[in-house]
Structure formats: structure tokens, C-alpha cells
């Protein structure tokens, strides 16, 4: 097909890719003198009334998706048909994207977490724009995501799976499954896709990017569909020990079988990924008014371990990181990968502050209130403050929540680990 001219305008230069639906070619737009990408949908070639109806429907759906205008969505410039009679083939003309697909990235193994977070945010922005326009992607997978040399993500093939098959994700009369079973949400495989199905597919993609392998492995399409419907995905950190707990939580939320338990929409997922891309602050020693430091009692890694003040010794159980969660809120993480937690989510005075595994609840979210001279009050979800119990200055004094009163025992200083001289 090289050098063939489509619609008297688009001259095919070289084949770029071949897939289940057809071929993608680099072409030259001879009218405007620019390179473009042309996708030929050979799956819809052929004659007869059914073939004609399918091509008409494809072109109708393609016109709808072509209305999407977003910097992270590949622009559709034109569409049409080539050939005559039983040889007619529909085609799309798209902007030419330079870079590489995430399938090429994955051929080299897992990607760096900051890159994955940045790519994920941009994919979410594209999905959010499309979902607001009533358009689902239906086939999020590595080869449909391109990254340009400048790091800009481009999402390809919006709505093409639906446009190419009226049942969209069910087995067609030829036995071909539209969509990609390795990334397909259970409800989509049953023929009932919804916007959250795109988030599930993105969860599969994120899992693969951070671990180097998909969440499920199967010998064939039906094996993947069965696994997505019946098996629980592994925790990403069980596949790759370099994956932190925040990523486990995010990906497993996306891979929930129940769409209602996933992120509410692409925008919410994008916000969560932005928090991951920004990374934690610290680690810090958190000094109290008594010249002591917040300390995880006896260096225990157990849930419910009390947070106390103790003479500073620089040990890991006196080191904390701040994780922004949006709206001026922070999670305060301990050396054990757990969170400071208002015990039992109680709103009462004197409730102890403990460490507990991450669950993202409001009782694990704190506000920081600067009061001058590098000092902060630390606010809890209950509108109270972290407080050194009874203003005591001795070791092992518990840290509690108490109504704000501005006393010195509610003032804390965050000092970067390594920036101060600690006792030998």
C-alpha cells in the first residue's frame, strides 16, 4: 500500500503498526504539506448491507469522538473511506505523534514511579474531558498511550472499540473480542461498560507500569476475562518490593470488582496521582516544647502503638514524613509506613495519637498552622490540636488531641533529619 493516495490527499509513506482492527501508516497530507497518521480499519472492509451499516455506524461514532479537543488526546483531522464496492475500507486521519508507546516503555521493564504518576495524571485529564462529553475510551492499554519526547501524554483511539463493534465488548459473530481482555473491567466484559471501566483499565496499566507485569496472567482472552471477574489482584508491592503503600492503595482501589468502590471519576483519580507525584516532605524530627521529639513507643511497628515525646536520639522511630493529600491536609507517616491516627476516630479531648496502617480516613489527616518563629500547631479532623499531655516534660509523655488553647505544649517544630546536632 506504500505510496497509495487516499481521498486524493493522503499519501501513505510507511506502515507504523498493525493490530486487530487494521493498520496505522505515516502519511503525507499533500494539501497542507504536513505529516499525519492514517488508521485503516480493515476489520470493517467488505460489502453487503451489514458491512455498509457497520461502516456507516463507525463513521458516525468517529465523528463524535473527533469532536474531542484536548492536549492529551490525539486529534482526529479527517475520516472517510477508500476503495470501492466490497473493497471499501474506512480510515481515520490523525495528528502525527512522535515518541513511543507505553508498550515500548514496558519492554524495558517497570517505569520510575514519578514518571508513572505524571503519565497517569495526564491520562486522567484526557479521560475526564472525554467522560464529560459522554465518550468512553473502552480500550485503555499500553499501545494506546504515547509519550512524546517532552513528556506529554497522548491517548489514542478514543471510542474506536465501540465504533468498530455494535456490541462493543462482547464476542462478535466471528468470535473476536473487542477491547483488550488483559485490561478489561468485569462489567465491560459482560457488555455493560461505564466510565469507571476506563479507570479499571487504567488501574491495570498502572499496575503493569510500576511492577513490570499485568495484574493477571492468562493463556488466552477467556482466561483473562475469567481472572478479572473472579480473582483478586495481587498487591503491587508483593510483585515489586519497590512499590510503596500509597501505590498499593491507589491501584487496588482502581481494580475493585465493584465500579462504585473505585475512584468516583477520572478527576478524583488525577488528584490522587498528583499527590503521589509530588512525593512526601521530610523526613523530620518533630520537636516539642520540652526539647524532646515525637517518638513511636518502643520502635514498635504494630497498629495502635502510642506516639509519645522522648529525648531525641535520632532513631528511625523519631523520624516522620508529611504526605500532602490536598486541601491543606497532610498524612504524617512513621518509620513503619503507618500513619499518625486519632485513636478510634474519637472527637473527645485526651484521645491518644497512635500509629495505624494507612486507610485515608479523616482521623489520619492533619492541618499545619504556623504561629511564628518556625513553630506550628497541628490540627486534627475534630478541630482540636495535638497536645503534650498535661504539659509534662518527661520522657514517654503521650501525645493526645485537645481543644486548641495556644499553650506551649501545643507548639511543635519540624526539623529536617540531619540538619541539627543530636546527642551522641
Model description:
It is an enzyme of class 2 (transferase). The protein is of the alpha+beta class. The protein has 3 domains: 5-95, Phosphorylase Kinase, domain 1 (2-Layer Sandwich); 100-278, Transferase(Phosphotransferase), domain 1 (Orthogonal Bundle); 281-416, Trefoil (Acidic Fibroblast Growth Factor, subunit A), CATH 2.80.10. The chain has 10 helices and 21 strands. It has helices at 48-65, 102-106, 113-132, 160-164, 186-189, 195-211, 221-230, 236-239, 245-254, 266-278, and strands at residues 5-6, 10-18, 23-29, 34-40, 76-82, 89-95, 100-101, 145-147, 153-155, 281-287, 293-296, 305-310, 320-326, 329-333, 339-342, 351-356, 367-372, 375-379, 385-388, 397-402, 412-416. It has a 6-stranded antiparallel sheet, covered by helices on one side. Strands 14-13-10-21-18-17 form a 6-stranded antiparallel sheet, with helices on one face. Strands 11, 12, 15, 16, 19 and 20 form a 6-stranded antiparallel sheet that branches. Strand 17 and strand 18 form a beta hairpin. The longest helix is centred in the first third of the chain and has 20 residues, at 113-132. 40% of the residues are buried.
